[in-house]
Amino acid sequence: MARIALVDDDRNILTSVSMTLEAEGFEVETYNDGQSALDAFSRRMPDMAVLDIKMPRMDGMDLLQRLRQKTTMPVIFLTSKDDEIDEVLGLRMGADDYVKKPFSQRLLVERIRSLLRRQDAIVTGEVAVTEETKIIERGHLRMDPLRHSVAWKGKDVSLTVTEFMLLQALAQRPGFVKSRDQLMDVAYDDQVYVDDRTIDSHIKRLRKKMRSVDEEFSAIETLYGIGYRYNEE
Question: Which end of the chain is more exposed for a tag (fewer CB within 10 A), N or C?
């Protein structure tokens, strides 16, 4: 049973969403501000967090930043219809997905299940006994899908589930272009719609993490209007 942390200062959302998730078989922990959630996470980390952006004491952005210092667990943001800038910033900071308020609870459940399936596949190695499970070595890059580990020039790089899958898709076929639609298919289930900006934000975050261990990292090339390509160095 996956443990989902729901963090929102709207008690109606906490009550209704937690009831829906529990009915779907999840264990749910609720918090009405970021600081309370962070304090609880320091004692026991959940399997996934669903965070509102605007909250008292500590908002969702600050909480995400603290979380990404210690965990790559999947994170979904809940955003209002006017929070487009916050959505992009959140994705660049390491959120895996976002859902706009007001939202369909069925949609949220599907997003949660999608991320958990991808995480479980990576952690357990149940991706498929094919190219997906093989260790990838491309120049300075080494990826081990079964251990969800990434190293660049021998230095470990901590990636979220989404970032890992995007890098894997690109590095598996260096020199070949992957369109944004193809990368969406890799990172998201068919029933989950995301726009081009979401993929772009994940790639920017991925590049930033790789450059944190090597300022000259340039293996991921943008082909404007087309997509992305991994160039083996």
Answer: N
90: its two tokens = 């959140």
Pairwise CA distance, residues 24 & 129, whole Å: 30
Give the C-alpha separation, 144 to 132, whole Å. Answer: 10
Angle, in degrees to the nearest 10, between helices 105-124 and 161-171: 60
- Sheet strands side by side (includes 27-31): 27-31, 3-7, 48-52, 75-79, 97-100
Regarding pTM above 0.70, the answer is: no
User: Whose CA is closest to 172, among 213, 208, 128, 117?
Assistant: 128
Amino acid at 92: R
Q: What is the CA radius of gyration of the chain?
A: 18
Q: DSSP letter at 221?
A: E
Q: Name the residue among 91, 149, 157, 141 with its Cα closest to residue 122.
A: 149
How far apart, in Å, are the Cα atoms of 12 and each of 36, 44, 53? 18, 25, 16
DSSP summary character for residue 205: H
**Distance of alpha carbon 188 from alpha carbon 181, whole angstroms:** 10
Q: Digits of tens for pLDDT over the chain (233 positions)?
A: 899 999 999 999 999 999 999 999 999 999 999 999 999 999 999 999 999 988 888 988 899 989 988 888 889 988 875 655 566 666 767 788 888 887 888 888 988 988 887 777 665 555 444 555 678 899 899 998 777 789 999 998 988 888 888 999 999 889 999 998 888 877 765 545 556 677 888 898 899 999 999 999 999 999 998 999 999 86
